[in-house]
Design a protein that fits this description.
There is one protein chain. The chain has 210 residues and is α/β, with parallel strands linked by helices. The chain has 2 domains: 136 residues, 3-Layer(aba) Sandwich (Rossmann fold); 61 residues, Arc Repressor Mutant, subunit A (Orthogonal Bundle). Helix content is 52%, strand content 12%. The chain is globular, with a radius of gyration of 17 Å.
């Protein structure tokens, strides 16, 4: 029996995932978490075979949560289930220790198959992501500009490019407006851009946002 911890801040999403997995005889949802703190608390107290983690929970970023989780339980497989397209985060989360990445638009059967796969110590990647990884592993002297950003800077850049204001981003990430403004300045400097419009243009060109 595969024991699963579902981590998502939306109760309706957790309920939907539980319903999908309820008809699967070799799986059981034995824990739920709505925040990063709850995830880390639960894995420290109980044993799970797989964590299904949303990367977009409020407060601490999903990438930070993933890294802390892997420090605490390095052998615990983590399957990222996110609303963000693979272009945005998949390569980064796999590098950070995730066992797989899926979008919330994936078919229920794909989710069940992915959980089984990572529970048995394997990686789950879509054909698109396999191609993306192969490209990223190739020797390239022209490394994309966004690869120079930290995980938090990258997250802020994607939100800016999606049309979010500094205040919106601060509220979403539970950080101060001043902190987000500092991130924005650093991002513009690292990427050699002058303003949000240029960041947005870059993100669209590189398929980092839809």
């Amino acid at each position: 029996m595969i024991k699963i911890l579902i981590a998502d801040d939306h109760s309706i999403v957790r309920a939907g995932l539980k319903q999908i997995l309820a008809g699967t005889p070799d799986m059981i949802v034995s824990g739920e978490a709505a925040t990063a703190e709850e995830v880390l608390n639960k894995i420290s107290k109980d044993d799970y075979d797989v964590v299904v983690l949303d990367i977009g929970m409020p407060g601490k970023s999903g990438l930070d949560t993933l890294k802390e989780l892997k420090c605490e339980r390095p052998k615990l497989p983590v399957l990222i289930l996110s609303m963000y397209p693979e272009e945005q985060y998949a390569v980064r989360v796999l590098r950070a220790g995730a066992s797989g990445y899926m979008t919330k638009e994936s078919a229920p059967d794909d989710l069940v198959g992915a959980i089984r796969r990572v529970a048995h110590g394997k990686k789950y990647i879509s054909p698109f992501l396999a191609d993306r990884l192969a490209t990223s592993l190739a020797i390239d002297t022209d490394k994309p500009l966004h690869e120079s950003l930290s995980d938090r800077e990258y997250q802020v850049m994607c939100l800016i490019a999606s049309g979010k204001t500094v205040s919106d981003i601060a509220a979403k990430l539970s950080l101060s407006v001043k902190t987000i403004s500092t991130y924005r300045t650093r991002i513009l400097e690292k990427m050699g851009k002058k303003n949000n419009a240029e960041l947005t243009h870059y993100a669209i060109q590189n398929r980092l946002i839809e």
